[in-house]
Amino acid sequence: MGTETVPSHGRLTMGVLWSAAGALDVVRDRLNGLFGSIREESGTVPFDRYTHYYEWEMGAGISRCFWVFTDPFPMGGLQEAKLATNHLERTCSSGGKRWINLDPGLLTLDSLVLATTKPYYHRIYLSKGIYAELALVFKGGRMEPLPWTYPDYRDVWAMEFFLAARHSMKRRIGETTNDNQAQ
């Protein structure tokens, strides 16, 4: 029989899509107020290299970036982060169309888990209409995508960003355990 344990904290991540000029700065300030400061920021890439899915809502010229927040984030808090970002998205809309899309996730030493409102066979229900999706796993010294990982998260630049953020997190928490010890 196993013993119940409370897992260590991870770091909140945010996938950000935007097309409106100035939107990124507005949202950054609001997220800083909700979740603390952003420690690491990826570069920016055009989102249309992956899909045109959100253009009907956000218009052309959508950009993608990722952020990792500084403060430790509780493992059980992902659904509350998604509810907060959903509310923020609604306030950042006009005529029922968002000008920002926020995808919170939780980065741990083992993986990146994303929060979503969309059920699917590979997603686990958390609570309050929010599901969790395992998107990347740390294996063999690198981040590895899974068959359902979104194209932008499986892109080399994104996986390298999350790997670097994982290493930074590991240094900050002084982790001394062996990587992938449970494999």
Brief account:
The protein has 183 residues and is an alpha+beta fold.
Write up what this structure looks like:
The structure is a single chain. The chain contains five helices and eleven strands. A hairpin with a 2-residue loop joins strand 10 and strand 11. 29% of the residues lie in helices and 34% in strands. Strands 1, 2, 3, 4, 7, 8, 9, 10 and 11 form a nine-stranded antiparallel sheet that branches. It has a two-stranded antiparallel sheet with strand order 5-6. The protein has helices at residues 23-35, 55-58, 78-91, 151-154, 156-173; strands at 10-18, 38-41, 45-46, 63-73, 93-94, 97-98, 100-107, 111-116, 124-127, 130-139, 142-145. By secondary structure, the protein is α+β, with helices and mostly antiparallel strands. The model has no long low-confidence stretch (mean pLDDT 91). The longest helix is centred in the last third of the chain and has 18 residues, at 156-173.
